[in-house]
């Protein structure tokens, strides 16, 4: 409980990157705003700022104090607005929106998200440590093969093959040593069996052997029970029989229980010592069953003297059930078939660069067979150590040795919950973002330790669910893969939004800085920049954060902890678009009056028309570029657009509001109405971002992230 209640306060991989990006953008915006403030104030108070009619705005000793203060306040307002535009307050909104949207949609894919941050973390997962039973398999167990005494029995209905004594002891062990139950309806309907899947399979087999569960249980009384233990891989019970004899029954992992047996019962009901040949015979039987992906369970018993059983209640509670000199009664092979589609799901993960590892309590042969069937191991050649490893072998290694081989492990058999925890810790130390599935109470520490804990909704205990981040409602590995897909969608949507936002930031900042330094005036005023900020942050976040996942996402490698949030592809796209917008709008700023044939107009009106056109073109550039941001690395930016009604609605709303602002709210935004030709120019300027984006995607980018070039440069400078 102590290990699962620890809260390290550790941030998710995406949060770490977002903090860095937000700080970086904010610092640049603040620096630019200070520069603009200083330049404009210096120009204003030194008499270098002119009105549109050519008169100087401020003249020392002549301009009224109130007018000077008003002029200075307007300059400060522009600087503050630049900071507002630059600071990415839309990032938290975009993250929350995309996480909330994904969380709601993931419910339909049988995944209940308990912690929002787990959605995006799953997109960064580099490895999944999965249970076998119930996750990769159906958890519908049936006894399909058995060795009773020394004979192989293929059909349980043919119980005439069993000797009376052996049959009686076997049924006694099945009925007595279980935490399940059998109910036979009085009406004569189907037998109802409860318990764990393994218990149910063995109890069904016992019923077929002729077991009357209630009668057998009533004939004996329980002296002491030792429930199945995941560490020892066995469970036992001491029963007091009607003739005052004590029978101690054990059941558990076949090779472990077999090692405790010294005798077996032959066809004539005689006890026969377990010689070396017989041990080899039974071991070979276990290997053959395991190779056929069967779970192997051994059932054994021994007698005990009643007078040697502790008499006091306290002593009886402390009594360790004898487990030496056991008599082997049966070896049973239980089939738990792979889930349909699990091989495709594993293949999808491997194509996406996510390594799937199986961690199971079954023996290595069974684990190997299921791993081959599910595609975790591609061939027998892969089934060698350390790809295939036993829990106790891994446990015995030092911390450094575990870290060294953790990457290579594909299957861990005969593992305890603590082995799973050790594997998770080793993988995380190697830099992996680890997802873990678990269902038992003992899995809680591993679920808590992992970056993403995935509890099973059907077979999972409450403790496992409480320790998890996401609950897989149908216990299906294919649903785990869907969670990875949604996680990658979250990450991709955040990247789309950042590319869109940075393009606006860069363009708006450069346009205002260049204009302020050169002419002392800015083409985009405070109200206009706040409207652009609304498009960029709130509406942009809504539009891009709700993009549904695509199959394209599962053909990429996972984004690890140290990968940059802004990729080279994003830098290429945003710089091309920002450069285009800056170039066109600055040309309009400096040469707009002549280009638009406004030289004969009243200077003040001509200036307002020019600035209105710049503002309108800038907004429409963002509208068109929003489509480009949908598909940063694909040519077809319209693919799947009709499925995202919210995106289409937001783009339509933005255009309608822009028309209203230009045509009817001129006094509020300091704009004037534009004629149809000026609207056409604005639309053409915005539209050109589409062919420009296609051209930009033809330009190859280096695989090495941009920031690493700067690191190398700094190293050279210091050396």
UniProtKB/TrEMBL annotation:
<comment type="similarity">
    <text>Belongs to the cation transport ATPase (P-type) (TC 3.A.3) family. Type IIB subfamily.</text>
</comment>
<dbReference type="InterPro" id="IPR036412">
    <property type="entry name" value="HAD-like_sf"/>
</dbReference>
<keyword id="KW-0106">Calcium</keyword>
<dbReference type="InterPro" id="IPR023298">
    <property type="entry name" value="ATPase_P-typ_TM_dom_sf"/>
</dbReference>
<dbReference type="InterPro" id="IPR001757">
    <property type="entry name" value="P_typ_ATPase"/>
</dbReference>
<keyword id="KW-0479">Metal-binding</keyword>
<keyword id="KW-0067">ATP-binding</keyword>
<comment type="function">
    <text>Catalyzes the hydrolysis of ATP coupled with the transport of calcium.</text>
</comment>
<dbReference type="InterPro" id="IPR023299">
    <property type="entry name" value="ATPase_P-typ_cyto_dom_N"/>
</dbReference>
<dbReference type="InterPro" id="IPR018303">
    <property type="entry name" value="ATPase_P-typ_P_site"/>
</dbReference>
<keyword id="KW-0406">Ion transport</keyword>
<keyword id="KW-0547">Nucleotide-binding</keyword>
<keyword id="KW-1278">Translocase</keyword>
<dbReference type="Pfam" id="PF13246">
    <property type="entry name" value="Cation_ATPase"/>
</dbReference>
<feature type="transmembrane region" description="Helical">
    <location>
        <begin position="678"/>
        <end position="699"/>
    </location>
</feature>
<keyword id="KW-0112">Calmodulin-binding</keyword>
<keyword id="KW-0460">Magnesium</keyword>
<keyword id="KW-0813">Transport</keyword>
<keyword id="KW-0812">Transmembrane</keyword>
<dbReference type="GO" id="GO:0005524">
    <property type="term" value="F:ATP binding"/>
</dbReference>
<dbReference type="InterPro" id="IPR006068">
    <property type="entry name" value="ATPase_P-typ_cation-transptr_C"/>
</dbReference>
<keyword id="KW-1133">Transmembrane helix</keyword>
<feature type="transmembrane region" description="Helical">
    <location>
        <begin position="645"/>
        <end position="666"/>
    </location>
</feature>
<keyword id="KW-0109">Calcium transport</keyword>
<dbReference type="GO" id="GO:0005886">
    <property type="term" value="C:plasma membrane"/>
</dbReference>
<dbReference type="GO" id="GO:0016887">
    <property type="term" value="F:ATP hydrolysis activity"/>
</dbReference>
<dbReference type="Pfam" id="PF00689">
    <property type="entry name" value="Cation_ATPase_C"/>
</dbReference>
<dbReference type="GO" id="GO:0012505">
    <property type="term" value="C:endomembrane system"/>
</dbReference>
<feature type="domain" description="Cation-transporting P-type ATPase C-terminal">
    <location>
        <begin position="522"/>
        <end position="698"/>
    </location>
</feature>
<feature type="transmembrane region" description="Helical">
    <location>
        <begin position="75"/>
        <end position="101"/>
    </location>
</feature>
<dbReference type="GO" id="GO:0046872">
    <property type="term" value="F:metal ion binding"/>
</dbReference>
<dbReference type="GO" id="GO:0005388">
    <property type="term" value="F:P-type calcium transporter activity"/>
</dbReference>
<keyword id="KW-0472">Membrane</keyword>
<dbReference type="GO" id="GO:0005516">
    <property type="term" value="F:calmodulin binding"/>
</dbReference>
<feature type="transmembrane region" description="Helical">
    <location>
        <begin position="21"/>
        <end position="45"/>
    </location>
</feature>
<dbReference type="InterPro" id="IPR006408">
    <property type="entry name" value="P-type_ATPase_IIB"/>
</dbReference>
<dbReference type="InterPro" id="IPR044492">
    <property type="entry name" value="P_typ_ATPase_HD_dom"/>
</dbReference>
<dbReference type="InterPro" id="IPR023214">
    <property type="entry name" value="HAD_sf"/>
</dbReference>
<protein>
    <recommendedName>
        <fullName>Calcium-transporting ATPase</fullName>
        <ecNumber>7.2.2.10</ecNumber>
    </recommendedName>
</protein>
């Amino acid at each position: 409980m102590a290990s699962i209640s620890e809260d390290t306060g550790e941030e998710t991989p995406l949060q770490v990157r977002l903090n860095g990006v937000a700080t970086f953008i904010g610092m640049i915006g603040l620096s630019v705003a200070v520069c603009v403030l200083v330049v404009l104030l210096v120009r204003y108070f030194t008499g270098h700022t002119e009105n549109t009619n050519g008169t100087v705005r401020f003249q020392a000793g002549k301009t009224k104090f109130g007018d000077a203060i008003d002029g200075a306040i307007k300059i400060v307002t522009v600087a503050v607005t630049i900071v507002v535009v630059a600071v990415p307050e839309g990032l938290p909104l975009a993250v929350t929106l995309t996480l909330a949207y994904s969380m709601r949609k993931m419910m339909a894919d049988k995944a209940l998200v308990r912690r929002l941050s787990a959605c995006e973390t799953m997109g960064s997962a580099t490895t999944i440590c999965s249970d076998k039973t119930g996750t990769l398999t159906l958890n519908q167990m049936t006894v399909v093969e058995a060795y009773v005494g020394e004979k192989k029995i293929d059909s349980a209905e043919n119980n005439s093959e069993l000797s009376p004594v052996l049959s009686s002891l076997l049924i006694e062990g099945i009925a007595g040593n279980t935490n399940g139950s059998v109910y036979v309806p009085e009406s004569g309907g189907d037998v109802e069996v409860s318990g764990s899947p393994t218990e149910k399979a063995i109890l069904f087999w016992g019923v077929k052997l002729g077991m009357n569960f209630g009668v057998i249980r009533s004939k004996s009384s329980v002296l002491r029970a030792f429930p199945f233990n995941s560490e020892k891989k066995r469970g036992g019970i001491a029963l007091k029989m009607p003739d005052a004899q004590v029978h101690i029954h054990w059941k558990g992992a076949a090779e472990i229980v077999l090692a405790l047996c010294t005798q077996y019962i032959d066809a004539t009901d005689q006890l026969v010592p377990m010689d070396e040949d017989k041990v080899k015979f039974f071991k070979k039987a276990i290997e053959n069953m395991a190779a056929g992906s069967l779970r192997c369970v051994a059932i054994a018993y021994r007698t005990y003297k009643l007078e040697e059983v502790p008499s006091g209640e306290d002593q009886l509670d402390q009594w360790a059930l004898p487990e030496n000199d056991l008599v082997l009664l049966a070896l049973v092979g239980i089939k738990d078939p792979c889930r349909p589609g699990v091989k495709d799901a594993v293949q999808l993960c491997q194509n996406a660069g996510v390594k799937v590892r199986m961690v199971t309590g079954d023996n290595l042969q069974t684990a190997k067979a299921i791993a081959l069937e599910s595609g975790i191991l591609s061939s027998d050649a892969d089934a060698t150590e350390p790809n295939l490893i036993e829990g106790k072998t891994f446990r015995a290694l030092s911390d450094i040795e575990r870290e060294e081989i953790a990457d290579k492990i594909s299957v861990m058999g005969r593992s305890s919950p603590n082995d799973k925890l050790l594997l998770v810790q080793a993988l995380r130390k190697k830099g992996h973002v680890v997802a873990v599935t678990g269902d038992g109470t003992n899995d809680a520490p591993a679920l808590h330790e992992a970056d993403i804990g995935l509890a099973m909704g059907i077979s999972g205990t409450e403790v496992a669910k409480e320790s998890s981040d996401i609950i897989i409602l149908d216990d299906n590995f294919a649903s785990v893969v869907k969670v990875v897909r949604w996680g990658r969608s979250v990450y991709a949507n955040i990247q789309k939004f950042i590319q869109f936002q940075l393009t606006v930031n860069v363009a708006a900042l450069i346009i205002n800085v260049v204009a302020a330094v050169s002419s002392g005036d800015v083409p985009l005023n405070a109200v206009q920049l706040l409207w652009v900020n609304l498009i960029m942050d709130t509406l942009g976040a809504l539009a891009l954060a709700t993009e549904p996942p695509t199959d394209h996402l599962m053909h990429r490698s996972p984004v690890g902890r140290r990968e940059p949030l802004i990729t080279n592809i994003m830098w290429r796209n945003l710089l091309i678009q920002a450069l285009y917008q800056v170039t066109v709008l600055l040309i309009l700023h400096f040469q707009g009056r002549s280009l638009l044939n406004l030289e004969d107009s009243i200077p003040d009106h001509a200036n307002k028309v020019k600035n209105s056109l710049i503002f309108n073109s800038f907004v429409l550039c963002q509208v068109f570029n929003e489509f480009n941001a949908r598909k940063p690395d694909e040519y077809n930016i319209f693919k799947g657009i009709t499925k995202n009604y919210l995106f289409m609605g937001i783009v339509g709303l933005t255009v309608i509001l822009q028309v209203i602002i230009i045509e009817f709210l001129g006094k509020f935004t300091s704009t004037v109405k534009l004629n149809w030709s000026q609207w056409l120019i604005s639309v053409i300027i915005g539209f050109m971002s589409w062919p420009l984006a296609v051209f930009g995607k033809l330009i190859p980018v280096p695989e090495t992230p941009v920031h690493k070039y700067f690191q190398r440069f700094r190293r050279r400078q210091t050396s």
